[in-house]
Amino acid sequence: MDGNQFLREVGSTLVAQACGGGSRLERAMRCLGGNLLDFLTTLDGVHDVLRQGGAGGGAPGDVGEAGSDEPAFVCARLGNRVALTFNCSRRPVAGKLLPGALSCVADRLYGTPADIRLEEEDPIEGRFK
After folding, report:
1. Can you say whether the dihedral through the CA atoms of 78, 82, 87, 88 is positive or negative?
2. Is CB count within 10 Å lower at the N or C end of the chain?
3. Where are the domains of the chain?
4. Which band of pLDDT confidence, cut at 50, 70 and 90, is reported for residue 125?
């Protein structure tokens, strides 16, 4: 297994373990939306609040730290696809965990098969789609 596949599996395992047995985290995640698109759109908004320092978030050095004009996580519908742009220049491994984590969320919370692909948009900036 190559490194990217390993990180994808780690992301999936983290979500599966965190959401096991109807945990509080699973219940909280389900509150973000009734389907995968709603979940991702709401997660985008929650991420914005956290990165701006609301609700105790926004630690120095975080992706999209307060004061940055660069969006860190953006969800947009493109026809029959959903595109996520995730700026992970400060924590590039997070971008490689994301496909596995989101695949697990799609399957476990919404019973939706998801083909999630990681495409490196700009290796210098660390942006992934």
Report:
1. negative
2. N
3. 3-128
4. low
Own/partner contacts of 55-61, CB < 8 Å, gap of 24 or more, are 61/90
CB 19 within 8 A of CB 107: no
Distance CA 15, CA 86 (A): 18
Which own/partner pairs from 40-47 qualify as long-range (CB within 8 Å, at least 24 positions apart)?
40/75, 40/82, 40/84, 40/102, 41/75, 43/73, 43/75, 44/73, 44/74, 44/75, 47/72, 47/73
Segment 17-57, tens digit of pLDDT: 998 888 898 999 989 999 888 888 888 778 777 777 654 44
Its pTM stands at 0.72
Percent of the chain with pLDDT over 70: 71
* C-alpha to C-alpha distance for 74 and 87, rounded to whole angstroms: 9
Question: What 8-state DSSP symbol labels residue 28?
Answer: H
Q: Are 94 and 88 in contact (CB under 8 A)?
A: yes
Q: Half-sphere exposure (CA, 13 Å, Cβ side) for 63?
A: 20
Backbone φ and ψ for 27, nearest 5 degrees, come out as -60, -40
